[in-house]
Design brief:
about 100 residues, about 25% helix, alpha+beta, about 25% strand, three-stranded antiparallel sheet, 3 helices, globular, single chain
């Protein structure tokens, strides 16, 4: 989702992502449909100029709770840049 401030936040969950059920690659419709639900998600934040937020050295942060996702969405919406978003956050750094 891209905000008017130029920052984009990507929230994803499912097979192969850093979230619930990330290692379940055997798909059978009757067995795996419930696995499309998740209590955690993976997130990335970046800008139009190729700047990324890094989370302890990685460009994605995984296993986020719904509350954490909502918090990052709000912070991203209100920030003026990747650098602004990272100020004061111990685990966030601009790339």
């Amino acid at each position: 989702m891209k905000f008017e401030n130029g920052l984009t936040i990507s929230i994803i969950w499912g097979y192969g992502n850093y979230c619930d059920h990330n290692n379940k690659f055997e798909l059978t419709p009757e067995k795996d449909i419930p696995h499309f639900k998740s209590t955690t998600a993976e997130m990335a934040i970046f800008d139009d100029n190729g700047g990324w937020v890094t989370f302890n050295g990685d460009t994605v942060k995984g296993w986020l709770t719904p509350e954490e996702v909502a918090n990052y969405i709000s912070k991203t919406k209100d920030a003026t840049s990747v650098k602004d978003l990272c100020e004061g956050e111990l685990d966030l750094l601009p790339s």
